[in-house]
């Protein structure tokens, strides 16, 4: 008996299909021929800034326990046949890759995966590494998918979450989904925080429903297989469900974040936890994006709460120069740190100047340039030009603040999962 890991990626396009679905078809067919997978299939999210991603940069893997060498050939045939038949090969950007690996999940395999989650890997590097560890890869077209397929096999699982995915009948692909939204809110009410990020109450947004013509009807995220399965029983839909599958994932684990010790070390297309001070009062740019500069002794970087982060921008607007922050987020196309959450470590005191108070309790008015102040209530005059310095009450407190579920990155850990 031995373990065979199978990784699959880059099978879908913006117009359809989904690698999780292809994976589920393969698993069903393998089961039919008597091959059972060990544990849950894995849906692994990779670097959110990888250039060729279709949507959420997901890759899939699962593990089989096989008895003989003959089984390997049979399994390979089933896997490759389905990937070839079901992938969106006519789309130029779809370049499937499949990896078969027999062996242990070693530390070097784990660090390869972390590299795919935290930085950029070339097809050549993935091929070289596959050869080194004795994995076998299959490329369709450019075969870029082998980068993610191998990463999905080796991804560490010390922190994990689960997603239950319900699939539509093929004849309904591309039509509006018929999900009973009240049942989704009810599910959230009954199962949160064992399930999370499935609705965005404040924005009345249903996060379980995709907005693409893919085979997925809905996906429920949660802490355990039981949590997502129980939640799934509460969801009502008005269309037939083809099948349901539960995936183990690295979603909402913050696995993409690197700890950086200074701003000058930050690189584009990577995600970080970085500390610094706010340099300026945040301002709102065209399109509703809220921006401020974060600085430390080594340099500075613009940080953005983009328009889709909705009410989170209100928090960011309340920051002031000198506030000390820990920022969690990634550096994208525009070389701006795209904020996922912040921890306010220290709030500075801010002051404003006001005309002096009169003995009668009323604030005085200017008596004219260089003439001091006078009270319009009781007529008292003051010759000096000295104003009062008054501390302004800060509208925020120290602590964590996060973007709403509707704007959450797949990998970003919601505060409800941040355990001390
Ligand atoms: P979906 O979420 O709908 O499954 P997707 O967003 O996962 O789509 P893919 O179609 O899988 O997008 O395409 C992503 C491609 O980028 C794959 O070929 C994958 O191997 C590759 N890739 C993933 N991570 C990296 C990385 N860190 N560096 C370079 N390439 C990567």
Core attributes:
420 residues; alpha+beta; Alpha-Beta Plaits; Glycinamide Ribonucleotide Synthetase, Chain A, domain 4; 4 domains; 8-stranded mixed β-sheet; 5-stranded mixed beta barrel; 22% helix; elongated; binds adenosine-5'-triphosphate
- How many domains make up the coordinates? 4
Terminal-residue CA separation: 41 Å
CATH structural class of the largest domain = Alpha Beta
Structural class call reads alpha+beta
What's the overall geometry?
elongated
CATH architecture of the largest domain: 2-Layer Sandwich
Radius of gyration: 27 Å
Task: Return the CATH topology of the largest domain.
Answer: Alpha-Beta Plaits
Helix content: 10-25%
Low-confidence stretches: none
Strand percent estimate:
25-35%
Strand runs, count: 23
Structure description:
The protein is 22% helix and 31% strand. By secondary structure, the chain is an alpha+beta fold. The chain folds into four domains: 2-154, 2-Layer Sandwich (Alpha-Beta Plaits); 161-249, Glycinamide Ribonucleotide Synthetase, Chain A, domain 4 (Alpha-Beta Complex); 257-347 and 395-417, OB fold (Dihydrolipoamide Acetyltransferase, E2P) (Beta Barrel); 350-392. Strands 5-4-1-3-2-10-6-9 form an eight-stranded mixed β-sheet, with helices on both faces. Strand 20 and strand 21 (381-382) form a beta hairpin. Helix 1 crosses helix 2 and helix 3 packs across helix 5 (145-154). The two termini are 41 Å apart. The mean pLDDT is 95. The protein binds adenosine-5'-triphosphate (ATP). Adenosine-5'-triphosphate (ATP) is lined by residues 9-10, 12, 18-19, 46-47, 50, 52-58, 95, 116, 120-121, 144-145, 147-148.
């Amino acid at each position: 008996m031995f373990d065979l890991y199978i990784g699959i990626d880059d099978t879908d396009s913006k117009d359809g299909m989904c690698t999780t679905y292809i994976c589920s078809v393969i698993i069903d067919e393998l089961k039919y021929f008597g091959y059972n997978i060990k544990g849950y299939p894995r849906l692994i999210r990779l670097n959110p800034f990888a250039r060729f991603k279709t949507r959420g940069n997901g890759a899939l893997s699962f593990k089989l326990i096989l008895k003989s060498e003959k089984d390997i050939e049979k399994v390979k045939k089933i896997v490759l046949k389905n990937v070839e038949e079901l992938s969106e090969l006519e789309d130029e950007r779809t370049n499937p890759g499949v990896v078969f690996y027999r062996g242990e999940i070693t530390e070097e395999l784990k660090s390869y995966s972390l590299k795919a989650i935290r930085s950029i890997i070339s097809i050549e590097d993935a091929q070289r590494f596959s050869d080194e560890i004795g994995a076998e890869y299959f490329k369709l077209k450019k075969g870029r998918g082998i980068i993610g397929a191998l990463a999905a096999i080796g991804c560490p699982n010390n922190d994990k979450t689960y997603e239950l995915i319900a699939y539509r009948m093929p004849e309904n692909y591309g039509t509006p989904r018929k999900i009973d939204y009240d049942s989704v809110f009810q599910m959230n009410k009954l199962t949160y925080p064992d399930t999370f990020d499935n609705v965005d109450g404040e924005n009345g947004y249903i996060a379980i429903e995709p907005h693409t013509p893919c085979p997925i009807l809905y996906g429920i995220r949660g802490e355990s297989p039981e949590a997502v399965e129980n939640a799934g029983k509460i969801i009502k839909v008005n269309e037939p469900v083809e099948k349901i599958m539960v995936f183990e994932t690295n979603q909402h684990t913050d696995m993409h974040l690197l700890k950086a010790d200074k701003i000058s070390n930050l690189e584009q297309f990577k995600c970080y936890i970085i500390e610094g001070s706010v340099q300026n009062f945040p301002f709102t740019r065209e399109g509703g994006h809220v921006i401020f500069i974060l600085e430390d002794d080594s340099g500075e970087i613009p940080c953005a709460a983009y328009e889709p982060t909705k009410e989170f921008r209100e928090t960011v607007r309340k920051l002031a120069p000198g506030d000390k922050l820990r920022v969690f987020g990634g550096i994208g196309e525009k070389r701006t740190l795209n904020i996922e959450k912040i921890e306010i470590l220290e709030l500075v005191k801010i002051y404003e100047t006001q005309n002096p108070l009169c003995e009668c309790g009323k604030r005085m008015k200017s008596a004219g340039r260089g003439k001091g102040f006078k009270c319009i209530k009781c007529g008292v005059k003051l010759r000096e030009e000295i104003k009062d310095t008054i501390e302004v009450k800060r509208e925020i407190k120290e602590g964590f603040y996060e973007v709403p579920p509707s704007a959450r990155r797949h990998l970003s850990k919601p505060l409800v999962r941040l355990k001390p």
